[in-house]
Amino acid sequence: MTTVRHVIVDGHEVIDGGVQELDLRAKRVLLDWHSIGHVALSESYSKEPRRRDVSYDYFHVNAIDVDKDGNLLVSARNTHTVYKIDRRSGRILWRLGGKRSDFALGPRARFAWQHDARRLPNGLIRIFDNGAAPRWYPQSRVIYLHLDFQTKRARLVRIVVHRPPLISINQGNAQALPRGHLLVGWGHEPYVTEYDRYGRVLLDLRFAGVLNSYRAFRYQWVGRPTGRPSTAIYRGRLYASWNGATQIAYWQLLAGPTIGAMRPVRTVSRRGFETSVPAPRHAWIAVRALDSRGRTLGASRPLARH
Fold it and tell me: Residue 164, preceding bond cis, omega within 30 degrees?
């Protein structure tokens, strides 16, 4: 987990970026690492505030990953650096990027204000390169870097970008999906894009309104609302919906002269968020939500037809 604390350095209040590893069962702190003492303020690209009453966020941890050898990869946005940290001693083993990089970065491999640095199973490091702000590059991108530990060089292997270009001044991530697909959350820009293994766009959604997302993920998800399905009758038609339910395949209509005498009269396929059908000519009407196997998921309250 990441931590922050405010410390005084040379008479100025500085935000110290921290990393903790906790043993929740034993209630023990296994690692309590702080950037102050390991990373100098001079490594930062963030401008020091002119006002003394404003804290200087010089480091800004935004991602932690466990590397293949069990040590940690820590991304610090404001130093433009990914740090390899010894999990036991807290010693910095190497730096990637920034002012003190242990690797020479090849063409287009330099990144800035980055998020979500991850080691991949094939050994590459994937980074969401914001490139802003202030702006360093024409657009934000996801980059894949190959590290050569003999030559101490970092080589750009792959770039993923959005069309039209997006410049995300903060936040953002990438998620590997099955079949070589990649999901990218564009952070401050309200977009989420899925690419196939060849880089073709399969999904490009935009959030409505003014909204941004720190990270975006795609998973199989099942919605099971705690309430009942909703029904309404308007101009002779019955409307059925159940906000949040993801397993509905069919709506079964129940009708009868009394609540106790209601029986199934029709089953229709679910059509979108709200399904509309002609209302049965009975005094009482209700619906059941059915899954693809015809199993009942939930039932509405009986509705009197006036």
Answer: yes
C-alpha span between 305 and 238 (Å, rounded):
10
Q: What is the pLDDT of residues 177-198, one digit of tens each?
A: 999 999 999 999 999 999 999 9
SS (H, E, C) 92-114: EEEEECCCCCCCEECCCCCCCCC
* Fold of the CATH domain 2-206: Neuraminidase (2.120.10)
Looking at the domain that runs over 230-304, which CATH code has it been given?
2.60.40.10
pLDDT digits (tens, 9 = 90+) for 56-105: 999 999 999 999 999 999 999 999 999 999 999 999 999 999 999 999 99
Tokens representing 295 are: 């199993």
293 vs 306: CA distance, rounded Å: 33
Cα–chain center distance at 6: 28
Give the separation between CA 278 and CA 301, rounded to whole angstroms.
18
Contact indicator for 167, 139 with CB cutoff of 8 Å: yes
CB 92 within 8 A of CB 112: no
For residue 35, give the DSSP letter: S
Asked whether the whole model's pTM tops 0.85, one would answer no
Domain boundaries, the chain: 2-206, 230-304
How many residues are given for the chain? 306
